[in-house]
């Protein structure tokens, strides 16, 4: 049953799409209110003229059709109340959408607007014992005019049908002597209503789905562009610092020669190689949308890779006076990983700890080979990632647990639950959208390796990021 219901689960909607839909709904609602008011005033004028100045013709029609002149009086009273009431509600909605409350809650104004057009006539005429069939044409008009938020269309249509199908029999409108039950609930009317409801809701749903796809395509392009800038920033800055240092060592401005150590050239070359590798991997990941992160796994020694990341971040480590404790041993078993992608993970996590914490923090790096039970014991009571915990329990072979721990300002535990989502951030978050992208990429890379990633943190008590990697099979 859960799997069946999961097929009807609405796709996750990005913040950009929700913002667009909110603004679009406000603009279309304003246009719809003015159009509805204009045409309803015309219809009201014609209707009020008929019931006020051509009342004798209405009485004659009631007598010929139903044999009861009193129906004309009931019709006149209901018509006056409906025409005036609908105009008042539309004016109230127009005024309300100019207020701060109306700008925040256009959905409520939309429902009131739809009810005033579709349900008010049923409710008013029911008080004078005159049933009215819902108008399927109005359902289509509103769907064309405001083709977003299909759930709102579904709500007001369902309530309108429920009132028509259930309320009328309850209040005995179907037993009135001048009502033909066959025409009130005929197959033709039911088919027309079902057709109008299905077409209008399906049209709105498909339009929303199309807009979501467009926003998702733009979002993926933004991910690609931000990934390039985010991952290439550190090596470029590192190279610039080295070059500026070399230039500053030149004592004579006329001296065109600068002596460079071999280690410095190797460092610059290493940074360039990382840049090229990252560009190639990002291009491959972007073009192979169905394959996700592309890995070229090989046996890797973890300590040299982490030392390379620390060397690239050396300037920031010194500038922020970080107390670095590197407990990663030289004799760790080889891991089966993509060197460049794993370099990105360590660079992002360590760089984030430096960027979003004050000076003089303590930064601890650790990596140990453990069994699943030992890892669960180490991460303790953290339960934000149940999926990862279950996968660790199922794994029978040893796993490498990598830990990046800082003594900084920490993160709100509620925010930790969404930290690895794309562009996730709270009102008081210390994480910018760029960092949200970095952590999102870290999660994709680690999971592509078959590992899991998580975070343990509390405000004022520092942050611990951990992730697991498979060992290279010996």
Kindly describe this structure.
By secondary structure, the protein is an alpha+beta fold. It has 19 helices and 7 strands. β6 (453-457) and β7 (463-470) form a beta hairpin. 27% of the residues are buried. Residues 381-391 and 425-436 have low confidence and may be disordered.
SSE run: HHHHHHHHHHHHEHHEEHEHHEHHEE
* Parts with pLDDT < 50 across at least 5 consecutive residues: 381-391, 425-436
Label the structural class. Answer: alpha+beta
Q: What is the strand arrangement across the widest sheet?
A: 2-4-5-7-6
Q: Report the oligomer.
A: single chain
Count of DSSP E strands?
7
- Binned strand content: 5-15%
Number of helices: 19
Distance between the termini: 44 Å
Summed over residues and divided by their number, the pLDDT gives a mean of 79
> Portion of residues in helices?
55-70%
- Integer-rounded radius of gyration: 34 Å
The main sheet comes to: 5 strands, mixed
From the spread of the alpha carbons, the general shape counts as elongated
Structure keywords:
two-stranded antiparallel sheet; single chain; 5-stranded mixed beta sheet; 19 helices; alpha+beta; 7 strands; elongated; 474 residues; 8% strand
Present the secondary structure layout.
Blueprint: H1 2-6, H2 15-53, H3 55-66, H4 70-96, H5 100-104, H6 106-118, H7 120-127, H8 136-145, H9 150-170, H10 181-184, H11 187-248, H12 262-287, E1 298-300, H13 302-312, H14 314-319, E2 323-326, E3 335-337, H15 339-355, E4 362-370, H16 372-379, H17 386-394, E5 399-406, H18 413-416, H19 433-448, E6 453-457, E7 463-470
Parallel strand pairs: 2-4
Antiparallel strand pairs: 1-3, 4-5, 5-7, 6-7
